[in-house]
Amino acid sequence: MFDAIAPRYDLVNRLMTFGLDQWWRRSTIAALALPPGSLLLDLACGTGDLSRLALHSHYRVIGADLSAGMLAANRTGVPLLQADCSQLPFPDSAFDGLVCGYALRNFTDLAGALAETARVIRPGGRIALLEVDAPRAAFLRTGYDVWFKQVVPRLGAALSDREAYDYLPRSVAYLPPTPALRQILADAGYSGVGIRPLAGGLSQLLFATRIGIPGQ
Ligand SMILES: C[S@@+](CC[C@H](N)C(=O)[O-])C[C@H]1O[C@@H](n2cnc3c(N)ncnc32)[C@H](O)[C@@H]1O
To answer: Considering the entire predicted model, what is its pTM?
Structure first.
């Protein structure tokens, strides 16, 4: 599916979020608060929007994604690897930090994937994960339902791939609720887990610090 939508992925993203996704991505990079030069993994990097902003913030970045099509459309110039989130081809504690944008709900074993992220991040390292959300406020929720469930699938069908953009609103249901997400991150080996709604709950930002001893 991601191979199919790769060529127009960025265009549809900008249109369906009115460009707000770039603002949310900047918040994601800012949430890392690591020193310049820190090495980041952009997990499920896709076309590399988060990598690009991380480079602007003077981080070093490696991107990994399962989709060859997404990697082919990635023009960031950072080193890229085709890899599954459940089995990352990196040694323990290889990275100072990790970002992941809009991919968690696609991971069939989310707990396993987050445990794998903890393995490749050094103790004291940071993660910042950007995901979709659904607004709680009634007025926002109504607009969101119309836009996300009715307009976005049509926009996606017109510009890209109908099936993929039908899946998008449905995929929100695969993301565990906030308390469960906190627990999964804690169980994976993270402390100080924070979850911040963005734009009234249109997206959400999860951040945490890696605890533990290298290799454990
Ligand atoms: C919605 S896109 C997000 C791309 C990019 N992170 C962004 O912020 O725009 C989801 C990405 O997750 C990748 N993905 C899905 N399952 C994966 C897995 N098991 N391992 C690694 N990447 C995966 C897809 O190939 C796709 O590039």
So the answer is: 0.94
